Amino acid sequence: MKIDDTDRKILVALQRDASQSLDEIAREVGSSKTPVWNRIRKMRDAGVIGAQTVVLDAEALGFEATFFVLIRTSEHEADWQLKFLAALQARPEVQEAHRLAGDIDYILKVRVKNARAYDEFYQALISEVKVHNVTALLSMEEIKATTALPL
């Protein structure tokens, strides 16, 4: 799908606050409600816009610790990868997981209530899949977090 300037303005508005009314978005982008709705529908159908969700305050809900977990593995077979990916998908503490190029094979962003909860996560993970080396880095302060793309 080809995205034009009006589509970009709509996407910027939605990234900032997807709960806005169509009237508010249309006013912001200098259009009327029906064309804005049609553009949003087309972008959803094309996969440009995915699921809409709510951002929760993790600390307000008691999830005070964020760990970045670096994983090295000596296993690279398809069966191991499937088992590892299934283990990650089953763990709600894992907010993000990335396969990397370089010395580290995977990095996980794990959000838990405290260090004890991280240790429970770690023990469960290593009981499910074999890993060569795990390094956990505790985030002392979140300086910036966004899901917004620089449109």
From TrEMBL:
It comes from the Bacteria. Pfam families: AsnC_trans_reg, HTH_AsnC-type. GO terms for cellular component: cytosol. Keywords: DNA-binding, Transcription, Transcription regulation. Residues 3-64 form the HTH asnC-type domain. InterPro entries: ArsR-like_HTH (IPR011991), AsnC-type_HTH_dom (IPR000485), Dimeric_a/b-barrel (IPR011008), Tscrpt_reg_AsnC-like (IPR019888), Tscrpt_reg_AsnC/Lrp_C (IPR019887), Tscrpt_reg_HTH_AsnC-type_CS (IPR019885), WH-like_DNA-bd_sf (IPR036388), WH_DNA-bd_sf (IPR036390). One of its GO terms (biological process) is response to amino acid. One of its GO terms (molecular function) is sequence-specific DNA binding. The keyword DNA-binding applies. This is Leucine-responsive regulatory protein. It comes from Pelagimonas varians. The lineage of its organism: Bacteria, Pseudomonadati, Pseudomonadota, Alphaproteobacteria, Rhodobacterales.
